[in-house]
Specification:
The chain has 386 residues and is α/β, with parallel strands linked by helices. The protein has helices spanning 12-23, 39-49, 81-85, 103-111, 121-138, 147-157, 189-192, 202-209, 212-225, 263-271, 302-313, 317-333, 341-352, 361-381; strands spanning 2-7, 28-35, 53-56, 68-69, 72-76, 92-95, 115-118, 142-144, 164-171, 232-236, 242-248, 253-257. It has 14 helices and twelve strands. Strand 11 (242-248) and strand 12 form a beta hairpin. The longest helix has 21 residues, at 361-381.
Length: 386
């Protein structure tokens, strides 16, 4: 029985992980998990799975429900995410929290020798060089959960590295793929959250609408697989059936295709290196009908170009890109800036925040903090279209 910890169980990846755990009760045991403030969900899952430890990260709920619920220990606050991954009966940690706050529990899991099913892309984007050094030092197994990276992980594993010319991440194009560009400045939050394919949290859905999420994934792919930015490509694929493509040196392309459901990459990451033992969902190729692929319009998606710019710059530039985006998206979701102001704020931050190449976590966190402060000041002084 493999012990599982899920950081961020109330989100889209977390809820899909629960579906997989229910399908494979004889293989996995949920030993710990976190929610932010959804206590009703926490109680339901405690009743169902009887975990050892649960974390409620919303500090406003601190102590509200006591320290025990049935036989489960309840912890409070962001810092307790580290306690969850250090539970001795936990073998694999699913990092499904959103944002750079996932880095400390991820590092704790690496140092504790846990297998990591990583869905928190911001950890690799923001702290990639540091995370890779720690993974190598502790010989940690890290399996990507994002559908695109998991697809590429499986494809790359089956092909010699010397035979791969390029890797390609697919993107649905988001909520505004066909909207006239001149209308983007006036779109609402409600429109941005209406994703055509995936059911995801607000932040990642807004990221997808501007293809910034794909930019983050490009940087993540660089750190996961070691390909240069010239070897990582992006295509728009509205059907969201093909999740990753590798191009071999002779010009052939191999692709991973499945129904757009997170249960596939989650099950693979939990079982790896053992194959998933049974069919999760039957979707024959005859049901795919049309598969379309075309290059992204960088005039529509300026955030994607900025991600490549940050990635190529290296150092803390990806950290600046991520922090600026997180702050800008939060402002947009609060209806305080326009949708098109998001990439403008990111570009301003990349141009203003000096780059550096720190050796430790504190150096990256310092730039992360500096960037967030800068974005807030830019907003206050009116440095973007409000």
């Amino acid at each position: 029985m493999v012990g599982v910890s899920v950081l961020g169980i109330s989100g889209s990846v977390g809820s899909s992980t629960v579906k997989v755990l229910r399908q494979f009760r004889d293989s996995f045991s949920l030993r710990s998990f976190s929610v932010h403030s959804n206590w009703e969900l926490a109680k339901t899952l405690i009743d169902e799975f009887s975990p050892e430890v649960v974390s409620v990260t919303d500090s406003q709920l601190a102590g509200k429900f006591g320290s025990k619920y049935k036989s489960t220990t309840i912890l409070y606050g962001e810092d307790t995410l580290i306690d969850l991954v250090q539970v001795t009966t936990v073998d694999v940690v699913v990092t499904a929290v959103v944002g750079a706050r996932g880095v400390k529990p991820t590092i704790a899991a690496i140092e504790a020798g846990k297998k990591i099913a990583i869905a928190n892309k911001e950890t690799l984007v923001t702290f990639g060089p540091l995370i890779n050094r720690l993974v190598a030092k502790h010989n940690t197994l890290m399996v990507p959960v994002d559908s695109e990276h998991n697809a590429l992980f499986q494809l790359i594993e089956r092909e010699k590295r010397t035979n791969i010319r390029a890797i390609t991440l697919t993107a649905s194009g988001g909520s505004f793929r066909t909207l006239p560009i001149e209308e983007l400045e006036h779109v609402s939050v409600k429109q941005a959250l209406n994703h055509p394919t995936w059911s995801m949290g607000p932040k990642i859905t807004v990221d997808s609408a501007g293809l910034i999420n794909k930019g983050l994934e490009v940087i993540e792919a660089h750190f996961l697989f070691g390909f240069s930015y010239d070897e990582i490509e992006v295509v728009i694929h509205p059907q969201s059936l093909t999740h990753g493509i590798i191009e071999t040196v002779d010009g052939a392309c191999l692709q991973y295709t499945s129904h757009p459901d997170m249960i596939f990459p989650i099950a693979h990451s939990l079982f790896y290196p053992t194959p998933t033992p049974k069919m999760l969902m039957e979707r024959k190729p005859s049901t795919w009908k049309t598969l379309e692929f075309f290059p992204p319009d960088l005039g529509r998606y300026p955030g994607l170009s900025l991600a490549y710019q940050a990635g190529r710059a290296g150092g803390v530039a990806p950290s600046v890109f991520n922090a600026a985006n997180e702050e800008a998206v939060a402002l947009f979701l609060e209806e305080r800036i326009s949708f098109t102001a998001i990439p403008k704020l990111i570009e301003n931050a990349l141009n203003k925040i000096s780059n550096s190449f720190p050796e430790d976590l504190e150096g990256y966190l310092e730039k992360d903090k500096e960037t967030r402060s800068y974005i807030q000041k830019e907003f206050v002084r009116g440095g973007v279209t409000i």
